[in-house]
Request: fold
Amino acid sequence: RKEVEQDPGPFNVPEGATVAFNCTYSNSASQSFFWYRQDCRKEPKLLMSVYSSGNEDGRFTAQLNRASQYISLLIRDSKLSDSATYLCVVNVPLTGGFKTIFGAGTRLFVKA
Amino acid sequence: DAGVTQSPTHLIKTRGQHVTLRCSPISGHKSVSWYQQVLGQGPQFIFQYYEKEERGRGNFPDRFSARQFPNYSSELNVNALLLGDSALYLCASSLELLSGQGVETQYFGPGTRLLVL
Reply:
């Protein structure tokens, strides 16, 4: 079983649609959680951190359920510019540091 | 402020050669991590360094090594290159290693594309 699993995608949605990304992680010791966005042939860019209380940034809402070891990202009113790969990221503590584990990513295509 | 920088941007090597990739973190960031990303996959964790010490290592062979310098910049070395080492190598920096306070959030450089022929 992969340490971080995401929907395989791709997702093809029209502009204005609401799209949800799901992610599960296997290590219950995981401490911090993030969503990154990666455009084609570019580096990952931080989209948002994910907190247990849930957090929202404009059209983006992230949720964390520690009991279920589940993370989600909701994009409302999707734009053409939201087309990218969305990466679920988990930090697992190590002695003196941490290990960052990425999911394989879910590709999103938003079409006009 | 400058973000994370990496050099070179692209590199072509042949099997058996070695390569050195370089990374400069965001000013004030003390931790640097290295990742390998092959096409269609998420980045895979290679190393984490903090204050010049290795603090984490992923499942990569001993051909991969790294170090961090007093100015917090870092090098990733790969010896005896294989075709399968062809990938995008990403460096990320974070302010600190403390978890849960935001200071561990990582910011990525543009990467080095390595092609092994």
In short: Chain A has a mean pLDDT of 93. The radius of gyration of chain A is 14 Å. The CA atoms of residues 82 and 110 of chain A lie 7 Å apart. Chain A touches chain B at residues 4, 31-32, 34, 42-46, 49, 87, 91, 93-94, 96-105 (CB under 8 Å).
